[in-house]
């Protein structure tokens, strides 16, 4: 049984073009696959790092409480310094400073001090710092704010602070 083979130059050129087009399609699919796998790996790494950093936030809170209530030993200072260095190397950033403009996407106001002459809400006391990893919020900063009364509400001179729920 003999296979039929193309004999004309045009037929050979046509087959070459088909195979070249097939090869180009397969190469493009493979390149897209590699890019997708790389993107997925980076996303998985970011999620894993965010999960670990979120789990370490209570440790940072304990460190802050220890700093407030007792003098730190040299060994504890070294441990804290190493921890903070490693967390920063992973991309963790602390935020929430007194004087910052209040941003509801990054801050959680626990108390609102009314100042009728203020133009905007300002963080006047940081109760717990916030943490983020790039654009990913790990925990909002818990703050007290001072600023104008809430919209649609006139200030009451007998009112000072409002607890927010």
What this model shows, in words?
The chain has 165 residues and is of the alpha+beta class. The chain is 47% helix and 22% strand. It contains 2 helices and 7 strands; from the N terminus they run ααβββββββ. The strands form 2 sheets. It has a 4-stranded mixed sheet, with no helix packed on it. A 3-stranded antiparallel sheet has the order 1-4-5. The model has no long low-confidence stretch (mean pLDDT 89).
Number of strands: 7
- Put simply, the count of helices is 2
Main sheet: which strands, in order across? 3-6-2-7
Give the overall pLDDT as a whole number. 89
Oligomer type? single chain
Strand fraction: 15-25%
**Unreliable runs, pLDDT <50, ≥5 residues?**
none
Radius of gyration: 30 Å
Share of helical residues:
40-55%
Shape: elongated
- Distance separating the two termini: 87 Å
**What structural category do the secondary elements indicate?**
alpha+beta
Largest sheet: 4 strands, mixed
Order of helices and strands: HHEEEEEEE
């Amino acid at each position: 049984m003999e296979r039929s083979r193309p004999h004309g130059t045009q037929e050979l050129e046509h087959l070459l073009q088909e195979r070249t087009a097939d090869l180009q399609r397969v190469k493009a699919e493979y390149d897209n696959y590699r890019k997708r796998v790389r993107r997925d790996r980076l996303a998985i790494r970011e999620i894993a790092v965010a999960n670990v950093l979120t789990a370490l936030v209570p440790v940072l809170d304990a460190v802050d409480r220890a700093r407030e209530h007792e003098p730190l030993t040299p060994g504890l200072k070294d441990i804290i310094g190493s921890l903070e260095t490693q967390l920063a190397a992973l991309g963790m950033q602390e935020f929430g400073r007194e004087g910052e403009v209040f941003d509801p996407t990054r801050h959680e106001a626990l108390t609102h001090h009314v100042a009728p002459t203020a133009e905007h809400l300002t963080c006047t006391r940081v109760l717990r710092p916030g943490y983020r990893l790039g654009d990913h919020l790990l925990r909002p900063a818990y703050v007290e704010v001072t600023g104008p009364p809430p919209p649609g509400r006139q200030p009451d001179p007998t009112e000072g602070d409002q607890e927010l729920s």
